From TrEMBL:
Pfam families: DUF4252. The lineage of its organism: Bacteria, Pseudomonadati, Bacteroidota, Bacteroidia, Bacteroidales. The keyword Signal applies. Keywords: Signal. This is DUF4252 domain-containing protein. It comes from Muribaculum gordoncarteri. Residues 1-24 form the signal peptide. It comes from the Bacteria.
Length: 156
């Protein structure tokens, strides 16, 4: 249950922070989702469209973001052994993209990758790994595809 709450929170954060449009499902995510201790969520455009007009905390309106989304994929894991097995597959996908940002601090990391089409992006890939101590490891990865600008990402 704890992992389910974690992935739902991660998914919600992704939708709030990353307005973009998406297309096909990521095969790497689908394959990794078959591993034990891994949670995977795929949200199609039809589900995202049903959120149009919703407000969160009274002030955050997702209309602009939701109208640009086709799908959101989130992968999450809390098991340290599984996380170490998953990271190479995620990095293999990320290596095909441009690095937009990479922050590493005391074992924690957030990496953001993208594929550009001119001034616009066609894919956005976020990998977040937390290794705060021997007992607490968290991995969340978010995959977004579509046709969106840097300004689109700032609109929330």
């Amino acid at each position: 249950m704890k992992l389910s709450n974690y992935i739902l929170n991660t998914m919600f954060a992704a939708m709030l922070l990353i307005p973009a449009s998406l297309t096909a499902q990521n095969k790497t995510f689908e394959n990794l989702a078959k591993k034990e201790n891994v949670e995977y969520v795929y949200i199609p455009q039809s589900m995202l469209k049903s959120m149009d007009g919703m407000q969160f905390n009274g002030s955050i309106n997702l209309s602009q973001a939701v109208n640009k989304l086709k799908s959101v994929e989130v992968l999450a894991c809390l098991d340290p052994v599984t996380i170490e097995m998953i990271i190479p597959a995620l990095k293999e996908d990320a290596d095909k993209m441009e690095t937009l940002s990479k922050v590493i601090d005391e074992g924690d990391s957030v990496e953001i990758y993208a594929v550009r089409n001119g001034e616009r992006f066609s894919e956005l890939y976020i990998i977040n790994v937390t290794r705060s101590d021997a007992d607490k490891h968290e991995l969340s990865a978010i995959y977004i595809t579509g046709d969106f600008s840097a300004d689109d990402l700032k609109n929330l």
